[in-house]
Amino acid sequence: MAEVAEIAINVKNLNVWYGSFQALKDINLEVEKNQVTALIGPSGCGKSTLLRCFNRMNELIPGARVGGQVMFAGTNLYDASVDPTEIRSRIGMVFQKPNPFPKSIYQNVAFGLKVNGYQGNVDEAVERSLRRAALWEEVKDRLGTSAFKLSGGQQQRLCIARALAVEPEIVLMDEPASALDPIATLAIEDLIRELAPEVTIIIVTHNMQQAARVSDYTAFLMVSEERSGYLVEYGPTSQIFTNPKEERTEAYITGRFS
Amino acid sequence: MKQHEQLFTPRRTARKITGVVFYALFLSAVVLSIAGLLTLVIQVLIEGVPWLSWHFLTNYPSRHAEEAGILAAMTGTVYLMVLTAALTIPLAIGAAIYLEEFAPKNWFTTIIEINISNLAGVPSIVYGLLGIALFVSWMNLGRSLLAGSMTLALLILPIVILASREAIRAVPDTYRQAAYALGATQWQVVRGVVLPSSLPGILTGVILAMSRAIGEAAPVIAISALVYLTFVPGSPLDRFTVLPIQIFNWISRPGDDFRGIAAAGIIVLLVILLSMNAVAIYLRNRFQTRSEE
């Protein structure tokens, strides 16, 4: 594969604090465009915090502070001139637990279109997004019913459709399958692989097999003595899983600690 | 088996009796309170229904019970409630949204929050006196419908604000997160997600508060005190009277006839109250099913 690597997000010397507690320390990371990048590591290593740096969701937490740069499309996301609402419409997010709005299936997908002033045909955009999330066939006859009537796996795919509707360049996924059963999990993983050629996906997971199955690149984070997260190793998933450079990576992947 | 008996003193009979005793206590508590209410309602119906007539509903008070009507007090109450709701609901929801969604958590907002809770416990006559001083005299509104509804709005604002805040606080944060993650502004999050989800709870608060307002006599007596009103208020600046005042006036007169029309007045008050609540409950259920089904 002679592809020219394009960078979707370039993280430079990123530090994150919650109050006086440093959650992330000196992270440097180049996320490849239209690839799936997995963030793995033991709990408390800050992989979710890192993910939330990419769409500035951390600043909704009182006391959170970010230092360093996150370069996206030529600008630093943390520049004073950058509007977080614009960033979030270009970098979507899917959460750990399916969190559809208490609205109809249709309204869930249309919400992001409405708030961002979508100029096209909303009906078509809703259908397109549901198709991309592999949910259309299951819900096309009941778009008006509540999203809560769907199963957990369907709800999560609806949340993916909701994120895709805004046509983001990047989709962040925070353990998107951890609340789902194995079959629904596989459906989400298939979906991630299908989306990857068009969208950059960054996924946090604590499931090694999942990272190995879905991702092209893997970043392994660990937590220091001071409870701060730091990046141990980053590279193509095949290399991280078969031939890691760091002994700690190998120890974690083979399950010697978690 | 023997060992088991030595370890425990089960007293099964005593425990069962205790259960039965408490069951009976709780049941009688329910029966007593419902029986009290039923007696009242039946008593009122027996005394009042014979006096209910088209004449009663469409005429003004009179010195003779058989000629007296309730039109002024009935329309006064309806107008007062409509005005009060129109003043209260936007203010209360606005304040609740500000306190829950926008206000920074500092000493200033803490003081505001504590005082709102305190205001909910202030006796209603105090609001009546405040209404006289502030609206009737200082703002020069006179003893008008508007002054009355502003006073009642002050009285029920804390109740609606507290209930609305509870309802807004009960909206899961995951909804807000999801909306923010789609690029929504703070106002879009509130308008598109928080308000629709909390509306049923807010409406419940409105029902409770309006039910309290419709029965309040003390602050309205302070503002209006009029019983012999022979016109229907035509503008918010007209004088007015309300059902509780009219009913109180009739009850305090000698003669069974006046007790009868007082009971009829109570029936009218109950009907207005129940239909008001029915509308609110209908609205609440509509929003609930819309958001959950």
Number of β-strand runs of chain B: 0
| CATH C-level class of the largest domain in chain B | Mainly Alpha
- The CATH homologous superfamily of the largest domain in chain B is termed MetI-like
Largest sheet of chain A: 6 strands, mixed
Report the helical percentage of chain B: over 70%
Distance between the termini of chain B: 56 Å
Number of helices of chain B: 12
Task: Label the overall shape of chain B.
Answer: flat
CATH superfamily (homologous) name of chain A? P-loop containing nucleotide triphosphate hydrolases
Number of domains of chain B: 2
Number of helices of chain A: 10
Average the pLDDT over all residues of chain A and give the rounded result: 92
CATH topology type of the largest domain in chain B: MetI-like fold
Using only C-alpha atoms, the radius of gyration of chain B works out to: 25 Å
Main beta sheet strand tally, sense and closure of chain B: none
Specify which chain pair forms the largest interface.
A-B, 32 and 21 residues
The class by helix and strand makeup of chain B works out as mainly alpha
Order of SSEs of chain B: HHHHHHHHHHHH
Commentary on this structure:
The complex is a heterodimer of chains A (258) and B (293). Chain A has 258 residues and is α/β, with parallel strands linked by helices. Chain A has helices at 47-53, 84-90, 105-115, 122-132, 136-139, 152-165, 182-195, 208-214, 237-242, 247-253, and strands at 7-18, 21-32, 36-40, 64-72, 75-76, 91-94, 170-174, 200-204, 217-223, 229-236. Chain A is built from ten helices and ten strands. In chain A, helix 3 runs parallel beside helix 6 (152-165) and helix 4 crosses helix 6 (152-165). Chain A starts with 6 loop residues before the first strand and ends in a 5-residue tail after the last helix. Chain B is an all-alpha fold. Chain B is built from twelve helices and no strands. In chain B, helix 2 packs across helix 12 (256-292) and helix 9 (186-215) packs antiparallel against helix 12 (256-292). Chain B is flat and about 85 Å long. The N and C termini of chain B lie far apart (56 Å). The mean pLDDT of chain B is 89. Chain A binds chain B through residues 55, 57, 60, 62, 85-90, 92-93, 95, 97, 99-103, 111-112, 114-116, 145-146, 148-149, 159, 162-163, 166, and chain B through 105, 172, 174-175, 177-185, 188, 192-193, 196-197, 291-293.
